[in-house]
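Thread title: Can someone regenerate the structure for this chain?

I was given the following input by a collaborator and told the matching structure tokens would be attached. They weren't. Posting the sequence so someone can regenerate them.
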Amino acid sequence: MEVENSPCRSLYIKKSRFSESQIVGILKEVELGAKGNETCRKHGISEPTYYKWKSQFSGMTVSHLSQLRQLQDENAMLKRMYAELALMHHALKDVVDRKL
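Best answer:
Regenerated them for you:
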């Protein structure tokens, strides 16, 4: 049984073992003067992971991150709503075109 080619595989996203507040804490630790490679070793993360987090979360606070997460969730909901309405619109348009 191959899991890699399974369509369900794309539905599951690997969850980070660090919370957003922990990530911000690690980034703050380096901002306050700790060495990046030592901090990575201390927390058990790779340097590429640290730099990825730095590019994503640099300068943010925990409250900013929670607000960002809420906005992303709302945006995803609105995109789903738009997709459903667009699909319904095209279906109704096809029905009207067939009747004429």
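The chain has a mean pLDDT of 85.
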